[in-house]
Amino acid sequence: MTPTSALWILLFVIMAMSHHSEVLGANVGINYGRIANDLPSPKRVIEFLARDLQYKIPMVRLFDPEPEALAALSETNLVVSLGTLNEDLSQLASSIDFAREWLNKYVTPYMDSAGNGTKFRYLTLGNEVIPGPFAENVLPAMKNLQQAVVEAKLSDYIQVSTVVSAGVLGSSYPPSTGVFADNVAGIMSDIVKYLHDNNAPLLINIYPYFAYISDTEHISLDYALFTSKQPVVIDGEWQYYNLFDAMVDAFVAAMVKVIGSEDIKIVVAESGWPSAGNEPYSNFESAMTYNNNLKNRIQNQGGTPRKPDLNLDTYIFALFNENQKPAGAEQHCGSFYPNLSKVYPLW
Ligand SMILES: *[C@@H]1O[C@H](CO)[C@@H](O)[C@H](O)[C@H]1NC(C)=O
Ligand SMILES: *[C@@H]1O[C@H](CO)[C@@H](O)[C@H](O)[C@H]1NC(C)=O
User: Fold this and answer.
1) Quick one: signal sequence residues (predicted)?
2) What is the pTM of this model?
3) Per-residue model confidence as pLDDT tens for the chain (347 residues)
4) How far apart, in whole angstroms, are the C-alpha atoms of residue 76 and residue 46?
5) Ligand 1 pocket, 116 CB below 6 A?
6) Distance CA 292, CA 275 (A)
């Protein structure tokens, strides 16, 4: 083969790859929750992800700024989504100085304006606080923290957003009817417009498990676990083989209605299935099936039926079983035990 023909083949391969970019996969990360009294130190946990697991899990979400974890992360290439405590929301909303202090305490010590250090990607204001007493604080807090990020010259690396549950939707079935609920419609539409102006994603928590256990008569386990061989829901031109896609596309529909175009971005901040605590629905088999299918689905194809180019980065819930969460299934969402052995094969 001549060098020239090799070059042409290379060009062809690159063009073919970019042509198919809309069906390329997205990344799968993990939620590192710490509501437990028997977990390894944050330093050991970060080392476990980076060294023991060799970055098989490349992204990690922290619910609050834990200094030891943030420092340990700066020695790794793990991509980090960092939440603020809900209690800090009102001050973040009311004071740009407090937002600057927050950033200077938890972010700038670990990441410089060349992007070296901890690879922060998202800072999330509030986890599932809409609707609720903190809901009005979310957008003002996002604006203040965004301004602080810009001032610190970190806006090339970091996007500011919030995390919402499917509870913000008033309708989600069929997916194209997705719309924000009346009691949050004003707040959500302002947030979605702001995110769109900043080219940032909305982070959503998507739990087919909860939808399934609330209506096992009408929702099939196959549809919830990604194991259906046939489309279960047909919504106009879109066919749904699994509930996860349908729930995400309900968000797509709601967001598209707000901004009037399909140009929206979403990240799944949480999804998972418990391995115990609510039998018969929670068990090793279902947890293993759901989480493995979710992971493969996202890694192979990061879009949805309605929006194949969505590039839906997803954080599985969760890294560990957490023994101080409310009793029941919530304590059994981990893919690892506190002693770092696997609950079931996933990674
Ligand atoms: C920061 O990153 C830049 C660009 O990658 C590199 O040239 C520089 O040496 C890094 N600085 C430090 C202190 O690591
Ligand atoms: C880790 O903890 C689990 C759950 O308590 C237990 O079943 C398993 O045997 C432990 N593994 C090791 C290596 O100690």
Assistant:
1) 1-25
2) 0.92
3) 455 555 555 554 444 454 444 468 999 999 999 999 999 999 999 999 999 999 999 999 999 999 999 999 999 999 999 999 989 999 999 999 999 999 999 999 999 999 899 999 999 999 999 999 999 999 999 999 999 999 999 999 999 999 999 999 999 999 999 999 999 999 999 999 999 999 999 999 999 999 999 999 999 999 999 999 999 999 999 999 999 999 999 999 999 999 999 999 999 999 999 999 999 999 999 999 999 999 999 999 999 999 999 999 999 999 999 999 999 999 999 999 999 999 999 99
4) 8
5) yes
6) 13
Distance in Å, CA 10 to ligand 1 centroid: 31
Ligand 1 geometric centre to CA of 152 (Å):
17
Of 264, 261, 291, 263, which is closest to residue 275 (Cα–Cα)? 291
Does residue 113's CB lie within 6 angstroms of at least one atom of ligand 1?
no
Which atom of ligand 1 is closest in space to residue 112's alpha carbon? 1
Q: Which residues pair with 61 in a beta bridge?
A: 31, 81
Task: Give the closest residue (by CA) to ligand 1 atom 10.
Answer: 116
Three-state DSSP state, 165: strand
Verify whether ligand 2 is closer than 6 Å to residue 284 (CB atom). no
Per the annotation, the verdict on 270 as an active-site residue is yes
Q: Which two tokens stand for residue 297?
A: 């689905």
What amino acid occupies position 171?
Answer: S
Instruction: Specify the amino acid at residue 199.
Output: N
Q: How many residues does the chain have?
A: 347
Phi, psi of 163 (to 5 degrees): -115, 125
- Distance (Å) from CA 290 to ligand 2 centroid: 22
Q: How far is CA 59 from the centre of its chain?
A: 10
DSSP 302-347: ---SS-TT----EEES-SB--TTSSSSGGGG--SB-TTS-BSSS--
Q: Alpha-carbon dihedral of residues 264, 86, 291, 235, nearest 10 degrees?
A: -40
What's the distance, CA 315 to chain centroid?
5
- Residue in 255, 257, 260 with CA at minimum distance from that of residue 310: 255
Strand partners, 159: 122
